[in-house]
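Page 47, continued from p. 46.
Same chain as before, 262 aa.
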Amino acid sequence: MKNLKGKLIFLKLGGSLITEKKPYTANLKKIRELIKEIHKLRDEMKFKLIIGTGQGSFAHISAKKYKTAQGYINKESLRGHSIVQNDASIINRIVVRELVKAGEKAISVQPSAASIGDGGKVKFFYLEPIKNCLKYDLVPVVYGDVVFDLKKGCTIFSTEKIFSYLTKKLKPEKIILMSGVEGVYDFQKRIIPEINKKNFNEIKRFLKEAEKIDVTGGMLHKVMEAIEMAKNGIEVNIIGGERGNLGKCLKGEKVGTRIKNF
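Result:
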C-alpha cells in the first residue's frame, strides 16, 4: 500500500507503550518518539487518522480496585466510576498535548460523554464530532473509558471496543494496534504472521489473558475485537512499538500479526 492520500487509518497507542510500570506515570520519551514518527508519516502520506490511547498504569489500576467493569455492584462503585473516568482521561490528555506540540491538530474525544453501553455493548456513540474532525483533517483521539450502562450502571469500553464500533460506521482503510509486544505469539514465542478464518481455531489456544493488570482482557480481548473489525473486510495489524514498524505497516510490509479474511 503506497498511496494513502485521504484514506482513514485507525491507530491505537497501547498502554504498555505509552506508560511506565510505575503507577500513573507516562512514558514521555516513547510518546514523543511515536508522535514524531506519526507526524512525519502523515506529512509524507497525507492520510486521515483516528488515534486511540490505552491506559497502561493509569485507569487499569483504579478500575481493578473498584471492579468498575462489573458496574454498580457496591457502595464504592459510584466513587470508583468518577475516579476511573478521571484516570482514563489523564493519559489521553498527555498524548493530545504532545501531538499538538509536535504540530498535529489533535482533539480529545471523551467516550464517556458521547456514548452509552447496554450490558457492556455499545448502545450509542455520537459520531458527529469525530466526523467533523476528519472533515477538517483534525486528529480525533479517543481512549478506553468508563461509560454509563443501561443495565449495569456503568461499564468499560476498551479502545478496541470503541474502534470496533467506529469501524462499522467510518470504514477505515487499515487498523493498527501498537503494543508492547511485536505481535501475537505461539507457545514457542514465535510471532504468528497472520490470523484468519481458516487458522483461528488452531491459534485460539495460544491466546490467554494478559498476566499484567489489564481489566479489558489482555491479548485475547485484543484479538477477538480485531476479528470483529476484520469481519468488515478491513485488515487489522497488531505490531510492536519499535521505531520504523508503523511506516512498514502503512506501506504494506510484513510486520507483526495481520488479522484478515473473516
